Amino acid sequence: MNRRVAIAVLSLCLLGVSMWSAGPVLAEEKVYVNGIDANYPPFTFIDASGKPDGLDIKAVEWIAKEMGFKVRHQPTDWAAIIPTLQAKKIDFIASGMSVTPERQEKVDFTIPYHKTVMVLVARKDSTLTVEEAMAEGRKMGVQRGTSEAKWIEDNLLKEGKKFELRHYDSAPLAMEDIVNGRLDTAAVSLTSAQEAMEKGLPLKVLGPYGQPDDITAYAVRKGDTELLNLLNEGLKRLMATPYWEELKQKYGVK
């Protein structure tokens, strides 16, 4: 073998090594970051071992596997979760988010996957009615940055109801303050109320307070049609499987 042939063979060998090395990089799965409320059971929460859990966590993980991408769940302050999405610090929101006209102006939503019924809860021994809970001197809790917080402010307080509305970082914290005697009631989803009662909190559901049922979906940045289509297709496939019913039963979501 002369020198020129030897150099040519060596170049081909190096090219082959280079292409082999690049293979795994080219095949690497896309990683999307899901922004979540870390204390919104049964949709999203952090379990006793410190890992994200809940209906939306397991659903998104199934979708990621089915659609060929990876997902990382990032606990995020709920009141700032949409600005965090817009700032590209997270890629989407799968955390029991309600679809509202105000949010539709800022994000694009997937197909809905759940309907949320909003109710007032009180201590188990309370004799209050829904109407009495809105009287002057009463204290109602709500999670800040939520559709229920805005609806109550726009449709109850502005219409002349005299109760005091207190904002909390999460719905479970508001319900705990009912038990502690700091609140008379809290506005939460029926699913969250049932979850809290199943965990032993001495609460009861007083009933709806007037807010229409919420439609729940995933949110992506405005114009991110690639991810929107990916999540939509994944949701359609998931909801057509027996696993979807198993998840809803496991997490008590009807």
From TrEMBL:
Q: Which InterPro entries match?
A: Solute-binding_3/MltF_N
Solute-binding protein family 3/N-terminal domain mapped to chain residues: 31-254
Alphabetized Gene3D superfamilies for the sequence: Periplasmic binding protein-like II (3.40.190.10)
Going by the entry's taxonomy, the superkingdom of the source organism is recorded as Bacteria
Keyword Nucleotidyltransferase present in the record's keywords: the answer is no
Checking SMART domains in the record gives: PBPb
Q: Does the keyword Iron apply?
A: no
Q: Where is the signal peptide?
A: 1-27
Q: Where are the transmembrane segments?
A: none
Q: Which UniProt keywords apply?
A: Signal
The identity of this protein, by name, is Amino acid ABC transporter substrate-binding protein, PAAT family (TC 3.A.1.3.-)
The organism of origin for this protein: Desulfacinum infernum DSM 9756
